[in-house]
Recover the amino acids of this structure.
């Protein structure tokens, strides 16, 4: 009797669980068990702890797939004992002690940096925090290029911001050092420089890296291809 891993899809910044909807449908249609929990985008440590808690509640093995900032989240959350595979989708792969800002800072800026909005929010007993989001008018081109225009407009006004502090927060764990991984590079990405993706994947020595002529929101433009990579990870980590 085989044990097939549950797939947990982890969204990134400026998005929510709905960003995975086309791939979620694809995996469900293929017969896989899928969970798509929210990521609160409050801090790397807290977000990773939240996803790890979801994974640890699964009775059996888990494959984590993280998009964008979700890649950094699964790099840490993937340390859970029942996580058997990691799939990075247009994502950040952090080393221990490395932050998003440090990793991205080693490469030329994407189009994202010039189109960010910074909004303060109050924190009890401390200085205000800062939420970071993408300019609504720039969102379709920067983040949702290739997505149906009407859908991109909805995504733009419903984006979940990322707290600014997360950009400088170092990763405490690099789960890819002990857990097999797979990666997808979006070669037409305007949110993350594709070279950031390639560098992280090469450093992590992922089992397989697939390059797609796709924008950052590759789950919407190439759902079957993304599902194929996740399916490969599930099949190769299933136990007899």
């Amino acid at each position: 009797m085989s044990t097939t891993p549950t797939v947990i899809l982890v969204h990134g910044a400026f998005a929510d669980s709905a960003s995975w909807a086309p791939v979620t449908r694809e995996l469900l249609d293929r017969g896989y068990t899928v969970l798509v929990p929210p990521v609160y985008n409050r801090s790397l440590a807290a977000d990773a702890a939240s996803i790890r808690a979801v994974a640890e509640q699964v009775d059996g093995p888990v494959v984590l797939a993280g998009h964008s900032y979700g890649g950094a989240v699964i790099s840490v959350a993937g340390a859970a004992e029942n996580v058997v595979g990691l799939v990075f989708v247009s994502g950040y792969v952090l080393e221990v002690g490395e932050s998003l800002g440090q990793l991205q800072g080693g490469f030329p800026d994407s189009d994202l940096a010039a189109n960010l909005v910074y909004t303060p929010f109050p924190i009890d007993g401390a200085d205000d925090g800062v939420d970071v989001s993408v300019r609504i008018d720039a969102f379709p081109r920067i983040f949702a290029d290739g997505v149906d225009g009407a859908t991109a407009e909805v995504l733009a006004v419903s984006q979940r911001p990322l707290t600014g502090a997360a950009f400088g927060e170092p990763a405490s764990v690099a789960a890819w050092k002990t857990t097999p991984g797979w990666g997808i590079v979006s070669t037409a990405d305007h949110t993350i420089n594709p070279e950031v993706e390639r560098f992280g994947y090469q450093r992590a020595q992922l089992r397989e890296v697939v390059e797609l002529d796709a924008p950052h929101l590759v789950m919407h433009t190439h759902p079957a291809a993304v599902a194929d990579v996740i399916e490969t990870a599930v099949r190769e980590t299933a136990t007899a």
Q: What stands out?
A: DSSP finds nine helices and nine strands in the chain. The domain at 6-237 is CATH 3.40.50.1820 (Rossmann fold). The mean pLDDT is 95. The two ends are 6 Å apart (CA to CA).
